[in-house]
Amino acid sequence: IVHPASEMTLHAEVLNVYGTLAVGSSGLTLDMLTGYFPGVAVSTGASVIGTGEVRLQGTVDLYIDGEWSAPLRIASGTTTVAATSDLNGDLTVDTGAFLGGAENVHLHLTGVGQNVTNNGTVTVPSVYFESGGDQYLAGTGTWRYLGVGETNQPIVHPASEMTLHAEVLNVYGTLAVGS
């Protein structure tokens, strides 16, 4: 188990997580150098956990095959989801930041009580809320494809007075507007 020191910024080409990366309350900024694959990879059986936010900057390929339950912020630049992945922690995409993915890649947002805020641009081909419980959506950003439950029937609560900009919106679960 690796516990980063208080508020730490790591400048790296690649970060491979084979065990546990435990992010404390002060967070961890990953300022990734351009053009290296996988960028950030969480292997099968590995995990990124904790209450602290992991902030991604620069051009990052993100591969999650293990558990990711720490809050994730796409702070700047372009982050590309390299393979179908599950994210259990809160997700924030800041203004001017991009979260993309190759065709046939899905991002499953699986955390009960999860907060998802998009103020940037999300072009991952398929983003699904899949917690089976309450999840919260906010922000002024744009989405390519947003799905509310395909298998686990979540209840997604949009922020009040929110304008949702999505190329495609599929609702299989519950989109609780005005609740």
Quick rundown:
The protein has strands at residues 8-12, 15-17, 20-23, 28-32, 40-42, 47-50, 54-64, 67-68, 72-74, 78-81, 85-87, 91-93, 98-101, 106-109, 115-118, 121-122, 126-129, 134-138, 142-148, 155-158, 165-171, 174-175. The protein is globular, with a radius of gyration of 15 Å.
Describe this structure as you would to a colleague.
The structure is a single chain. The protein is an all-beta fold and 179 residues long. It has no helices and 22 strands. The protein has strands at residues 8-12, 15-17, 20-23, 28-32, 40-42, 47-50, 54-64, 67-68, 72-74, 78-81, 85-87, 91-93, 98-101, 106-109, 115-118, 121-122, 126-129, 134-138, 142-148, 155-158, 165-171, 174-175. The model has no long low-confidence stretch (mean pLDDT 88).
Task: Summarize the SSE layout with pairings.
Blueprint: E1 8-12, E2 15-17, E3 20-23, E4 28-32, E5 40-42, E6 47-50, E7 54-64, E8 67-68, E9 72-74, E10 78-81, E11 85-87, E12 91-93, E13 98-101, E14 106-109, E15 115-118, E16 121-122, E17 126-129, E18 134-138, E19 142-148, E20 155-158, E21 165-171, E22 174-175
Parallel strand pairs: 1-4, 2-5, 3-6, 4-7, 5-7, 6-8, 7-9, 7-10, 9-12, 10-13, 11-14, 12-15, 13-16, 14-17, 15-18, 16-19, 17-19, 18-20, 19-21, 20-22
What attributes characterize this protein structure?
22 strands, globular, mainly beta, 179 residues, single chain
